[in-house]
Amino acid sequence: MTDTVPAAALPEPGPGSPPAAGDRFANADLRPVPATERTWTTYNFAALWVGMAVNVPTWTLASGLIGVGMDWTQAVLTIALANVIVLVPMVLTGHVGPKYGIPFPVLARASFGVRGANLPALIRGVVACAWFGIQTWVGGQSIYFLTGRLFGADSWWADAGEIAGRPWTLWLSFMAFWVLEIAIILRGMDTLRRFENWAAPVMLAGAVLLLIWIANEAGGFGPLLDQPSQLGWGADFWDVFFPSLMGMIGFWSTLSLNIPDFTRFGTGQRAQVWGQSLGLPTTMAAFALLSVLVTSGSQAVYGEPVWDPAELAARMDSELAVVFALFVLLLATLTTNIAANLVSPAYDAAHLAPRHITFRTGALIACAVGVLMAPWKLYEDPDIYIFTWLGTVGGLLGTVSGIFIADYWLLRRTRLDVEDLYRAEGRYWYDRGWNWRALVAFAAGGLLAVGGSYSGPFPEDGLIPFLQPLADYGWAVGLATSLAGYLALMRFAPPRGQVLEGGAPTSSGG
């Protein structure tokens, strides 16, 4: 689909005429980034992904796959393939960043409508706030543990009185980590870029040093690498492989949606494509392999595999080594949490009320919401968090990605009228600011993606029983359904004044 303006008359790629700050649907943070301020290079994007991918959940991904019967080669290959697959929508959606300089909520206006874009922005923002709170709690625990090792097991720090069932020093650590994150994000995206640049090599060095230490302790690696797959390569393996693959894809499905929040600062398409390609699948696969090697060594040393890097670090004899290892874990949590879970809700909150909420104000709101969601309780009850909420949101985010790709790549052929993205009564206004076609496609994709999801840890808890076979493929089902549905609705019931590729102007309403 194109607009009624002839293709030759469409503006060249660029930010267009930026709306004035304080406009009804814009502020300084939502406006297109000027070309002169798009300074992120290939290294910056690669470092961003190293900073986000190197974290404790990534470390333990392989353990989950080995736990279901895979051997280490099958586990690492599954993780690598999943991240190559999720890289595709990541790069496709990220294309809009260097070309137009707009963030994720503004891109959503092209398909959902200027007002309707608040729906995907709200969904993405809520899940990010919850993740932010949980990661902040984990980071606070790292500070608490690190400080405890410095003061000693019999110190006042370890024997502190309790508040709400937990030591007050743990609450203090949690708040300290929370304040540290706020201090970094309030300094803006350029500070985040510089922080990721120096943090990435430090974290990789820390992981390699952990490998060298455990190899030295083990005198080589243990029997884990020699254990055969419990599934083989037959039907049993494929029954486990595809649901596992979807789970690994879902790990970064959130970022595949709001990646324009970062690529809008890119120097060009080459920077975002190569930076993401070099940073995401390679780091995820290499880090998974590293975790398997280190855990294999731990089995040789301790007689059992130790998958939690914090627990493993605590077993080191050297106090200095323990402090460095825990510092790396703290740094990994910090870089992941700010980039993956704070940038998006900051923009999403600003999008809800551009006149009153800036990026920094949105970040503060997200930080507050993350705490108010009581992340320590979510962390304590993974059944409720994973099965009833995160699984549902993951499927819905895949549904939004399908609509984005269909609209931006297949219908508009990457051409947007930037000025109309920021005003009422333009070509993206649709019906009072909402595009009902996107809403219908979203509802259909969401129903198939999450309708059979579990409402608890057991299969019989599925919401809609006959849709349960689709539950393990929620992200892919949602993306494919919404993409096809949106294309069909836009072609057979196109908005007034817009045309299909090579067609004539239409007069249908809405």
From TrEMBL:
Keyword Transmembrane helix assigned: yes
Transmembrane regions listed in the UniProt entry: 46-68, 75-97, 168-186, 198-215, 235-257, 278-302, 322-345, 357-378, 384-406, 436-454, 474-493
Primary subcellular site in the record, as a coarse category: membrane
Keywords, sorted A to Z: Membrane, Transmembrane, Transmembrane helix
Tagged with keyword Membrane: yes
Positions with biased composition (Low complexity): 1-11
Membrane topology, as annotated: Multi-pass membrane protein
Record localization: Membrane
The family this protein is said to belong to: Belongs to the purine-cytosine permease (2.A.39) family.
The protein's name in its UniProt record: NCS1 family nucleobase:cation symporter-1
Organism name: Streptomyces boetiae
